[in-house]
Specification:
alpha/beta; TIM Barrel; Arc Repressor Mutant, subunit A; 2 domains; nine-stranded mixed β-sheet; three-stranded antiparallel β-sheet; 16 helices; 23% strand
């Protein structure tokens, strides 16, 4: 079993109205430099034995907006990773990028460091909706950044798209799909908008300045996307993720298969195969904690591996191989959860075929209800 590394970079040009992640507005280079120094120190403090001897074959820069980092800062971080871990030669190395945060020089430099996959935060090609989301870029910025990615040799690009925005119509959504398909990225991730308490968007909805999400319309948008992307040659491999053959996200698949992932940085989560642990969500506290004691960990728990194996595995369209469950836990999945599976089968939410338990198309729309049966 191979492991992955996740690196959280919290800095952004501005904060999106819907964002509930641990982020900070980029104000000065010194603060970023101090953060990168702390991140590298945290990597150095982690024993290689923490990876259980597993080689690393995915590295993921998430955020925030990791593309705010200079190439020198990325190089410094990757140096520490390569010193502390056994990094495979064919490692998938992803960087999340937002439009208008990179130029050709920076992209060439990233590529020379081994960054070989770009996760590109398009969200929507509608300028009205981009303003609603406070994205800090317009649709032309997204088109230009994608052009630069292609010109600099990035041949593994993922688009993020958001459905279910306030005032978003089906025609708006279909135009988003039209443009995304025409641009032909290798991977597309769909997110149904969630409104989190404490965000500007939540306050706008609470005060009546924005509409609440039309959940029925959002579900229709999801179904339209399933059909459109399948017709365009994309294969759905997870509830919200679609890829050209061979371009599935190896890193994100680790989460769904309960493979080890070692996280570094503010709010980063790690999983070592048995325990899940997390760092503080406060950037200043993270930097201080690393400097003072080498650790910013604030929580640790032993997971219910059997339960998580089921509901995370069901996110994959391939589902759960019954033999894998028995090998891992010494139990028969169908008899252990016979009542739950019978009920879900009768409701046409799951099916059993080819030795696997899978969600049906209807089950994908009501996945949370399915997962709740196994928690």
């Amino acid at each position: 079993m191979t492991a992955g590394v996740y690196l959280h970079i919290p800095f952004c040009k501005s904060r999106c109205s819907y964002c509930d992640f641990a982020t900070d507005v980029y104000r000065d280079g010194d603060a970023v430099g101090r953060y990168v120094g702390a991140l590298c120190a945290e990597v150095r403090s982690r024993s290689p034995a923490d990876a259980g001897g597993s080689p690393i074959d995915t590295i993921y820069f998430g955020g925030g907006t990791p593309s705010m980092l200079t190439a020198k800062q990325v190089e410094k971080i990757l140096h520490e990773i390569n010193v502390r871990f056994d990094v495979s030669a064919d490692t998938e190395m992803t960087m999340e990028m937002n439009p208008a945060t990179v130029d050709a020089e920076k992209l060439h430099a990233y590529k020379s460091l081994g960054i070989n996959r770009a996760s590109f935060g398009v969200q929507t090609f509608n300028d009205r909706d981009l303003k609603l989301l406070a994205r800090g870029h317009d649709a032309n910025d997204a088109r230009e950044t994608f052009r630069l990615l292609r010109e600099t040799g990035f041949d593994n690009v993922s688009f993020d798209l958001i459905a279910g925005l306030p005032d978003q119509t089906m025609n708006d959504w279909q135009r988003n799909l039209d443009e995304a398909i025409a641009m032909s990225p290798e991977h597309i991730s769909l997110y149904l908008l969630e409104i989190h308490e404490g965000t500007p968007l939540a306050e706008q909805v609470r005060s009546g300045r924005r509409k609440t999400i039309d959940e029925e319309l959002a579900a229709e948008m999801y179904e339209v996307m399933l059909d459109r992307l399948a017709a365009a040659g994309y294969e759905q491999y997870e509830i919200s993720n679609f890829a050209r053959p061979g371009f599935e996200s190896r890193h994100n698949t680790k989460y769904w298969r309960l493979d080890p992932v070692y996280g570094f940085g503010v709010s980063a989560h790690s999983f070592d195969g048995r325990e899940r642990y997390a760092n503080t969500r406060d950037t200043a506290a993270y930097v201080d904690s690393i400097r003072e004691g080498g650790s910013a960990e604030i929580s640790r728990e032993t997971i219910n591996a059997q339960s998580e194996f089921i509901f995370l595995g069901l996110r994959l369209t391939s589902g759960i191989r019954l033999a894998d469950f028995e090998t891992r836990f010494g139990k028969d999945l169908l008899s252990t959860y016979s009542a739950e599976i019978d009920s879900l089968t009768d409701a046409e939410l799951v099916e059993i075929s080819d030795g696997r338990l899978k969600l049906t198309r209807k089950g994908m729309l009501f996945s949370n209800e399915v997962f709740a049966e196994f928690v």
